[in-house]
Amino acid sequence: NFEDARKSYKKAIEIDPNYTNAYLNLSTTYVNEGNAMIDEMNSLGNSRADIAKYDELKEKKDSLFKQGADILEEALKTNPDNENIMTQLKNIYGAMGDNENFMKMKK
Hints:
This protein is mainly α. The protein contains 5 helices and no strands. It has helices at 2-15, 20-42, 48-78, 83-96, 99-106.
C-alpha cells in the first residue's frame, strides 16, 4: 500500500532528515504508482473515450513523477553530492521528458 509506505518514510525523514534512503524510497512510491498507470495507458485504444482516459492517466502519472522528483530535490539540499539521488532524479526527469532538469542531473 503506497499510502502506508509513504507515512512510514515520512516519519523516518521526520526522525532523521539526513536519512537518504527514506527520501529515495518515498520518491520510489510515487514513481511506482505512476509506472502502474503506464500499462493501463498502453492498453487503451483509439476511441475518443480511450484518448480522454489516456490523457487523464498521463496527467496523473506526470503528477506522481513530479512529486517523486520534488522529494529528491528536497533531499539534494542536504545531500548535494549523493549519486543515488542524482541518478534517480535523472531517471525521473528522463521519463517525464524534462530535458532541462535531466541535463542538470547528467552533469
